[in-house]
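Researcher: Next entry in the queue.
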Amino acid sequence: MRRLKMHNKKDFLKQVIYDTGKGIKGYMKAQATLMFITFIILSIGLTAIKVQYSILISAGISILDIIPVLGAGIVMLPWAIINFLIGNKEIGTDLATLYVVLVILRQLAEPKVVGKEIGVRPIYTFIATILGSMILGPIGIVLGPITAVIINSIMKIKKQPDNRR
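Model: Structure for this entry, 165 residues:
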């Protein structure tokens, strides 16, 4: 059976825009999920190392974690370094270790969470994120997955059979 691919441009563009909007909404939902994961990891870690106001600090760092590339490191790294410099080596080491654990777990979770929410396979999301960051820098981390959504939408539409003759 032969598939006819005779989509008019207006319908095609509408579908791509719809799918892209859906993908962006999914991306924002994925970022919220990743912020929650960051919050949980930091809450457990900071509470374990007996940091005052650990829940409040975890919430603040989780919000900052949405910033591409810098994320939680914008607070965690200087905090660990300052503790080393003022002689609190144990707390500095604990904070640095917590940050490394956070980065590893987030890097493992991000492609799966983002891929699930935007409707693109995790490996493609990962590749799009890496290529986006290589080509466009920090903004590419956001634009890479969006580009993957657009490409996925176009491929999905092209594979649909056209019922018109």
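Model: The longest helix spans residues 9-48.
Researcher: Noted, moving on.
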